[in-house]
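Query structure, 123 tokens:
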């Protein structure tokens, strides 16, 4: 019992700190190595991760740019865009009609005239 009392009054020696492992730069390097090791376990190289990150950032930037463009368009600009799309659609339809054989075009014109003649007769 007297040994326990004497031991409680004495200062117990601590294990001395290793100056290398105690340094901040060593701790950061060790942490970075651990993180790199964890990433390599997933099977992707650093280049693949960098490319994926770049693609992701480009998609995010494109999405933000698109939102900005949509937000900043005025009603006039929107109407002009709608008109331009309508005109492009009409041009595409005209091109497709020109590519049709001539007998189909004539048949379509005859169908239109018979429908309009029938409409006039009913009135």
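Result returned for the query:
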């Amino acid at each position: 019992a007297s040994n326990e009392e004497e031991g409680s009054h004495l200062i117990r020696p601590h294990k001395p700190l290793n100056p290398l492992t105690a340094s901040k730069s060593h701790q950061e390097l060790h942490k970075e190595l651990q993180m790199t090791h964890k990433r390599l376990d997933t099977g992707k190289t650093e280049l693949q991760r960098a490319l994926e990150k770049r693609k992701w950032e480009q998609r995010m930037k494109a999405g933000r740019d698109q939102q900005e463009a949509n937000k900043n368009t005025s009603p006039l600009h929107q109407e002009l865009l709608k008109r331009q799309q309508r005109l492009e659609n009409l041009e595409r339809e005209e091109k497709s009609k020109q590519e049709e054989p001539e007998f189909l075009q004539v048949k379509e014109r005859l169908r239109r005239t018979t429908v309009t003649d029938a409409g006039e007769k009913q009135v």
